Amino acid sequence: MAGDGFDSRNESNTNVINVTEKLTAKVVLVCIVAASAGLIFGYDIGVSGGVTMMEPFLREFFPFILKRMADASQNQYCIFDSQILTAFTSSLYIAGLSASLIAGRVTTSIGRKGTLVVGGLIFLAAPIYLSEMAPPKWRGTFSTAFQFFLSLGVLIATLLNFFTAQLDGNGWRFSLGCAAVPASIMTLGAIFIPDTPSSLIQRGKVSLARQSLTQLRGVEFDTEAELNNIISYNEAAKALTLEPYKKILLRKYRPHLILTVAISSFQQLTGINMIAFYAPVLFRSIGFGSNSALIGAIILGAINLGSTFVSAIMVDRYGRKFLFLEGGTQIFVSQAAIALLMALELGTAGTEPFSKGAAIGVLILMCSISAAFGWSWGPLTWLIPSEILPMEVRPAGQGICMAFNFGTTFLVSQTFLSVLCHLKYGVFFLYAAMVFIMTIFVALFVPETKGIRLDSMDTVWLRHWYWHRFVEQPSKSSMPEQQTR
Known about the structure:
The protein is mostly helical. It has helices at 25-35, 38-51, 55-61, 63-70, 83-118, 122-133, 139-164, 171-177, 180-191, 197-202, 206-217, 224-238, 244-247, 254-266, 272-276, 279-285, 290-318, 320-346, 356-374, 377-388, 394-423, 426-445, 458-463; strands at residues 7-9, 20-22. The N and C termini lie far apart (48 Å).
């Protein structure tokens, strides 16, 4: 099976070692297993939003919401405005934020595979694992697999919510309990995959790294050049004696740190949070019935899942920035259109009936947002940091990435329904404005990383119009920290 694959040559950069890249069945298999970590994340997102729409759940924990829904004079924008209700959904991200703060050290000490097996830090380990395992030509495609499984988890949870909502009283319990299934799949799968060569070399296990690389590239492929390149890169990184979380604060890592924090935070400011978590709530707010609201959420989940395939096909063909810019423009237009439509239908009072045609229009525009996110900010948020972070600060940087992503997600999910109640349709104008600013930021400051080997990423910064003033020439990478601060 190791010989099954396709050959290509990476010639995207003159500083890249020109070696044949073999896409073997082994690479495909281990990347699929690692990417399936997204199932757990996606399922948790999808199940929490749907459960909050089930009347037995609301009757058990939030009876005042049912009273609001029965009040015909109630402002439609404010029916679900409850900090306690939103805390049910957003509390997931407090746990994720706490785990991400220690994840960098754990990933460095026990490896990428070990972190996947442990399970609690999978959101950090999976993107790093995928970027280090995949050949440069297909790195973008395989890295989008994490977002694909995340979207699949959302869709599975939403479908399950639809069917369990028909059960008598206990459907929500069944939906929540089924979260153990994707967690078990991920843990069992991670036991049988190898660790990444970079992680093994980082921990001094050169022979295991050679074995892992041979399994991935095929026995007929000369892995010594690639192995020696990783070893040299690791030795240069070890010359810097600072621990990773202090090291990443050095001036030469300024571009990596700023983009890692910005991209991970910006993802949740696209407005996708209200699509993923609160689509059923929004649809109920504008007049959909309970089942219709869940059907609408299923449609959005299917669109998001399908758009991830688009990203997988296009990310290594047209590049990362193209998808960022197209997706940002589409989200901006769709958010503004939703705001205008809701302003015309509901106004600021929120007591007018929402017409069927307008409700369908909102659904179509939300599908547009979901699709654009699925091929841009969704997968690229996990891909870009794992590509641009040097090996010596990669686990720490990815931990920071996840911490800011979880923190921003918590803030947005906890406040969205309250902001919707106070700003009314203006909340969509707010998101549209943020997406506009984010798209300009990407156009100016995010470099293109398509097809460039991870150990040759320095050349990207040296050629950038702004970031080149912070980074060092590769030959200086082994200088002591005291000379590089």
